[in-house]
Amino acid sequence: MILIADSGSSKTDWRLVNGKEVSQFSCMGLNPDFVDSTKVAQELNQTFNTINKEEVTVVYFYGSGCSSESRSKVIADGIEMVFPNSVNYIYHDLLGAARAACGKNKGVAGILGTGSNCCFFDGDQITEAFRSGGFVLSDEGGGVDIGKRVLKAFVEGRMEEELENRFLKRYKTNVDEILYNLYKKPFPNKYLASFSQFAFHNKENAFVSELIQQSFRAYFENIVARYSDYQNIPLNLVGSIAFYYQEIIRKVALEYDVQVGTILEKPISGLTLYHTELGAN
SS3 for 188? Predict the structure, then answer.
């Protein structure tokens, strides 16, 4: 039996492959920045309490936070406690996005979810990637960036009256409360990203449409265009923002001569294909 995981900070999607049979599981996010090996083992024991754990032979784990050997070891040690006979591969979630969206093909692969990222993929490994400054300095095109642009327009009084009334009716907030949530409360990135939903539900409004396009233009200009051959190789994307805004993304991509290929909401289906039908390790 083979286990494949795509793990973020809040949720982990699992696929158990037993011959031609594929089963789905989920558990909390297993980011080594927030959990230790004991917690990983506890979560796995609870999630897979209906299977014979000794029959699991391989685990492919793609996770946010698994960007160094020491962080990956946290996950690996937890997995070893639960699946004694498995060979374990721990990878960063950006590689998971690339393998899921590109398969065995060369391409530029990106994540557009709460945050954003991008890399150059040779069909097996990431060969080029740039550092990200996170939601404060980077993450263009992600939910945080779109939400930030919506809030900025509201706080600065740049929304037309009808749009502002829609905003107030939906969120029942004010400038003081917004600033308090941003500067005094934890997880301002999640707070900012929550306002991307307002943009999505009002994307037919000309002002909102332009805000969204500005965010994606920043993604192409500041991230995608850093790769030397980006106009000659398809851009493949994963993430909720990529999936739900794909019509706008494809429209903006034309402005930069970028060919957008595969767009997946979640990497797990593509990763299952990558490690089964494509026979890749």
Answer: helix
Q: Say if CB 97 and CB 238 are below 8 A apart.
A: yes
d(CA 263, CA 213): 18
Asked if residue 7 lies in contact with residue 61, where contact means CB atoms within 8 angstroms, the answer is yes
3-class SS of residue 261? strand
- Phi and psi angles of residue 108, each rounded to the nearest 5 degrees, phi first: -90, 130
For residue 237, is pLDDT > 60? Answer: yes
According to DSSP, the β-strands at 2-7 and 11-18 are: antiparallel
Cα end-to-end distance, the chain, whole Å: 14
Percent of the chain whose pLDDT exceeds 90: 83
Helices (H), the chain: 37-47, 69-82, 93-102, 134-137, 143-155, 161-171, 175-183, 188-194, 196-201, 206-222, 240-244, 246-255, 268-275
Both structure tokens of 128 = 């080029």
Cα separation of 151 and 179, whole Å? 10
Coil, helix or strand at residue 231 = coil
Contacts of 153 (CB under 8 A, 6+ apart): 159, 207, 211
The full set of domains in the chain, from first to last, is: 2-99+268-275 (3.30.420.40), 137-213 (1.10.720.160)
CB 10 within 8 A of CB 34: no
* pLDDT tens by residue, 168-207: 999 999 999 999 999 999 889 889 999 999 999 999 999 9
Structure tokens at 13: 């999607």
222-245 core/surface letters (b: 16 or more CB in 10 A; e: else): ebbeebeebeebbbbbbbbbbbbb
